[in-house]
Each structure stands twice: as structure tokens, then as C-alpha cells.
Amino acid sequence: VRKPNVVILGAGYGGLMTTVRLQKLIGVNEANITLVNKHDYHYETTWLHEASAGTLHHDRVRYPIADVIDRNKVKFIKDTVTKIAPNEKKVLLENGELEYDYLVIALGFESETFGIKGLKEYAFSIANVNAARQIREHIEYQFATYNVEEEKKDERLTIVVGGAGFTGIEFLGELVNRIPELCREYDIDPNKVRIICVEAAPTVLPGFDPELVEYAVSQLERKGVEFKIGTAIKECTPDGIIVAKGDEVEEIKAGTVVWAAGVRGSSVLEQSGFETMRSRIKVDPFLRAPGYEDIFVVGDCALIINEETNRPYPPTAQIAMQEGQLCAKNLAVLIRGQGELESFKPDIKGTVCSLGHDDAIGVVFGKKLWGTKASFMKKVIDNRALYLIGGSSLVMKKGKFKFF
Ligand code: FAD
Which residues are known to be catalytic? Predict the structure, then answer.
């Protein structure tokens, strides 16, 4: 009998979890598993704000995919997916094409700029390892340049963060720890540095417990962050941003603008003709693309509505990994032609938002946490993600053990 071809696109949380679970569930003779990813390494997306601020080296946030896959069962291809042709059951890569019987789409997220002028061209976004490295280098270059310039441009030392959601706040938490180091390294008066967070919504971290939000804001303000809430970015220019609050329009000159206020699914989905909302496919209860019994979608490319709130679940690593686990089980059912497909029910254990390496806020198992306790919990969560994919050896290699 011909073995079915299972092709998994993307080795982020969703795709890699699907792969490592599936390789455990099925035997060598049951299917050909192929994993495709742009790079030969996996990165912890949830740690990228640290690499971007420069508080954690970029090599700490990534590891070789070869370390966690069973090469007897999984063939790895380093390539970029350009298009999916679902009716021909084919995937087009930059350097070739693949045929599949079952496909898993786990291509992750891209920055969503909501059409705001200039953001794509002039703002950075915390999107992957290389983008994080560029942000770190760019900020450092601004600081290094400042002192050697004849005519000092104070705006070089202004950093604007667009968005006070989860990513924006976590990035600010790292920045406020990194800036004093940079000031020492480059002989810069800390009073010259401005860190400004611009958020269009009426509150920081919408949806988070208000008491914890207040704690986060006061901690960040104490370390120098200026919040401009209820203020929308209208345009980004080579010199900074233009914001508006009601009728008041203001220009803020800034050497660095980081956009952290929105994500969408991979543009490959739209280009492939799938019906999407912000490039995310609304999946059926078994995580399949509507109309295609052979295509699963996991992670930030999948859209699932929370029945209780009637709103989509936010795209998180926590959900991506749970989807990967279920997707592997459902694939095994289809490959074997026996058993029943299971439907997806997210089990949200909590959310912890870091405020630097030694502070955080969160709600875990319904309990509110802040300060060192929350920060400890954050590291437990980070290590658990490594454990679920690569076991204790990966935790030993890449884990976070400096707790306070
Ligand atoms: P990703 O992890 O983004 O992986 C996608 C993979 O596909 C990557 O390896 C990429 O290289 C590859 N790829 C992309 N396009 C192509 C292509 N065309 N061809 C080949 N390969 C491709 N979530 C939480 O639960 N908790 C947190 O604390 C948290 N913190 C976050 C902090 C930051 C700074 C950010 C940016 C996100 C955070 N998130 C957090 C969200 C979380 O990171 C995402 O929800 C999660 O990464 C989604 O997983 P994924 O598998 O869908 O995609």
C-alpha cells in the first residue's frame, strides 16, 4: 500500500508540536512526514521582545529543528512556501514543489499595519529572529551615533512603541532595563532618552485585570515610559510619527519606531485563494479548513471563535501548541482510517505578561500574580513550552534558570 504524504508547513509552536507528536504516534511504515520551514532552526516567538531589546542574545531564542525531530520518520526541507494549490493537493516552494495527501498549515503571523501610512516602510516589527536583531542593532546604532555627532539630534534617543497590548508591554518591560545599560556603554545622559508608548484604545492591555494593568503601568512609568493612551498613530515618517487624540494632532520625532499593535495570519493563505479574515482561516471543530477534509490549520493562521464571548480566541503560543497536539491525533486517525476525529477545546491555563526579567503580571489558574512570583511563573511557562516539544534535554540547553 502507498503511504500517505503528510506535509507540515512551518516549524513554529503549532507546526513543530504537530510534528513531534505525530512522529511519536505513528510508525515509520504508516506515513511519509515532511516538515517545511524557512530556516533550519525554530525560534521561541514569545521571547523575541527580549532579543529585540537586546536583553537576551538571539542565539538563546532559537535551536536547530534537527535536535527535536526523528529523522527516521520526518524529512525536513529548508525552503519558503510561496503558494498552496488545494485543488491540486500541491504546495509550491521557492525551490520546488510538494504533493500531499494531508496538509498542515502552520505558517504563523505577519505584522498588520491596518493601512496606516508609512508603517511598513519606516517602523520595525517584532516578527522573527532577523527582525529582532535589526531592532536591537538599530537602537544601539542610534545611541552610538549620538555622541559622535557634531550636531546632536536628541530624537535619536527617542523610541516609540506603537501598541500597549501584550507584545508592546513586554517589549517596553525589556527596554526599560536595557536603556540604562546602553546609556552607560555610550556615555549618554539617561534624561535625554524618551520611551513613548502610543495606544489607540482607551486602556493599556485591554481585557486584562484592571488592578494588574495599573501595577504594570506604574512600574513602567517609574522606569521612564510615557504613555499616550487613546491616541492613534496616523502616519509614520522617516523622522518619527504623527499622532492624533481627538482633534489634536502632534508630531513626535523619533529615531526608532516599533509597531507592536497588530498581527494577521500568513499572507500565503490569501495568495492561495482561501477564504480568510485578516489572513486567518476559520477552521471547523477538527481544525480543518472549510471545504477541505485534507487540510488542517493550526496556530496564528487558524481562527476559532470563543462561544462564550462570541469573539475569536487571541492568537497565542499556548493555543498553537494545544492545536498542534490535537492535529497530530486527528492526523493519526485519518492515516489509520480508524477511530474518531476529536474536536478542539482550548484549555487556557492563564496568561502572564512579563515586565522585564524580574517582574511580570498575570492570572494563572484564576489567581492574580505580580512581581517576582509572576516573573517566576513566566519562566516556568517558557520552560514548559520547551519541554513539551523537546523534553528535558531541550530545557537544559535552552531553559531559563536565572529566576530573579
Ligand atoms: P510561529 O511561532 O510564528 O511560527 C511560524 C513558523 O513558520 C516560523 O518558524 C516561520 O519561520 C515559518 N514560516 C513563516 N512563513 C513561512 C513560509 N512562507 N515558508 C516557510 N516557513 C515559513 N503567546 C503566548 O501564548 N504567550 C506569550 O507570552 C506570548 N508572547 C509573545 C511575545 C511576542 C513578542 C510575540 C511577537 C508574540 C507572543 N505570543 C505569545 C504569541 C505567539 O508567539 C504566537 O501566537 C505563536 O508564535 C504562534 O505560533 P505559530 O506556530 O502559529 O507561528
Answer: 170
